[in-house]
Design brief:
Blueprint lengths: L3 H12 L2 E3 L13 E11 L1 H4 L2 E4 L2 E4 L1 H13 L2 E6 L10 E16 L5 E14 L5 E15 L3 H26 L5 E3 L7
Parallel strand pairs: 1-4, 2-5, 2-6
Antiparallel strand pairs: 2-9, 3-4, 6-7, 7-8
């Protein structure tokens, strides 16, 4: 009998959560003039893939949309990028591994009827050589902020997707800055 109130509270809190679907079509906003001629493997950590964010009464499955956006940043930087779980030595010229360092979504209802949502996402970008020895480890951050009078779920989605866009752009810039070796000219949208 003593557990009944706890069970009812747990059911109510999960039943009251609203799922917000995030776009998986986010990609770098700027085409890159040069790309590496290497084929790389891209790993999204289990931590990143499994991440769900909860804010107020909203729930967001952040993992797959974030991984998809980060893979697109790698595709724009290298000749070919293939998502893998466990690469082996010599399989790729480089391996890039993404891991979620932190994420925060804050939802505030304002006195004027507007909703204010801010989102911050930090991702660790690790580059490995052909021998799977780590070459670099750096973090990129993305922030999103939306405040207006609209459906709260729309505002939450827009703020989180803005942070995803910034993380994707920053990851792309970081990957380009670390390129060495032969390059090919042209953007990722050109035929390969």
């Amino acid at each position: 009998m003593r557990c009944l109130p706890l069970i009812l509270a747990a059911i109510c809190s999960t039943a009251c959560m609203q799922t917000v679907e995030l776009s998986r079509a986010i990609q770098p906003s700027r085409p890159l003039p040069d790309r590496s001629s290497e084929k790389i493997g891209v790993v999204c950590s289990e931590n990143l893939l499994a991440h769900e964010e909860r804010a107020s009464h909203f729930e967001l499955a952040l993992g797959e949309p974030l991984c998809s956006a980060l893979i697109k940043s790698a595709e724009g930087t290298y000749r070919s990028a293939e998502r893998v779980t466990q690469p082996y030595k010599g399989q790729y010229g480089r391996v890039v591994r993404f891991d979620l360092q932190s994420s925060v979504v804050d939802v505030q209802r304002r006195g004027d009827g507007s909703t204010r949502v801010s989102c911050s996402i930090s991702v660790v970008v690790e580059r490995y050589g052909r021998d799977l020895q780590r070459l670099t480890s750096q973090a990129v951050i993305g922030n999103g902020f939306v405040e207006r009078q609209d459906a709260a779920d729309v505002i939450v989605r827009e703020a989180v997707e803005a942070a995803l866009q910034e993380v994707t752009d920053n990851a792309s810039s970081l990957l380009v800055a670390g390129l060495d070796g032969p390059r090919q000219h042209g953007s990722a949208s050109e035929p390969r």
